[in-house]
Amino acid sequence: MAVHLNLSSPKEIAFLVNSCIQGMHAVQDHITKDSDEQKLETHPPGFITIIQLILFVSFTTATVVIQGPHEYINGVPIPTLLFKGLPSTFYAFIISIILAFSGAFSTLIIFRQMEIFARITGYCSIISLASAMALLIWAIYSSTTSI
């Protein structure tokens, strides 16, 4: 049985495309509804909220570091407010921020598909942000005691 469609006007084409998209979404929602609800319940309460917070904090921190005043040491800009004279501490801080951002982003992207890997990347993100904050506190302490 052949179906002939008269697709002469843009309205008919748009209607057909929208109908196909709605049908695909309905099938996908029906297939994944039960498994998504079960997977979302397996995360600890507030886990995704913490990961979103880490994503926001790491992105904001990177933006502030880029915009702040800096000096060049060996051709690399080092922020002068907190890390003056501490280039290796700044490098470790930036690596920690990058790992926190990458882990949080990975967790949010894959938390429904690969639960175990999402938890691992989420915990690595938490640890990386904690180490970045420890480095920041140490840099503040070092800069205040050397004055």
The gyration radius over C-alpha positions equals: 24 Å
Q: What is the tally of helical segments?
A: 4
Helix share bin: over 70%
Strand content: 5-15%
Structural class: mainly alpha
Principal-axis shape equals: elongated
Q: In total, how many beta strands?
A: 2
Task: Give the biggest beta sheet.
Answer: 2 strands, antiparallel
Q: Biggest sheet: strands side by side, in what order?
A: 1-2
H/E series: HHEEHH
Distance between the termini: 87 Å
Average per-residue pLDDT, rounded, comes to 75
Give the total of domains.
Answer: 2
- List low-confidence stretches: none
If you had to describe this structure to a student in words, what would you say it looks like?
It comes from Rubus argutus. Keywords: Membrane, Transmembrane, Transmembrane helix. The chain crosses the membrane at residues 47-70, 90-111, 123-141. With 147 residues, the protein is mainly alpha-helical. The protein has a two-stranded antiparallel ribbon with strand order 1-2. 18% of the residues are buried. The model has no long low-confidence stretch (mean pLDDT 75). The chain folds into two domains: 9-41; 44-145. The longest helix has 32 residues, at 10-41. Helix 2 crosses helix 4 (115-145) and helix 3 (87-110) packs antiparallel against helix 4 (115-145). The protein has four helices and two strands; from the N terminus they run H-H-E-E-H-H. Strand 1 and strand 2 (76-79) form a beta hairpin.
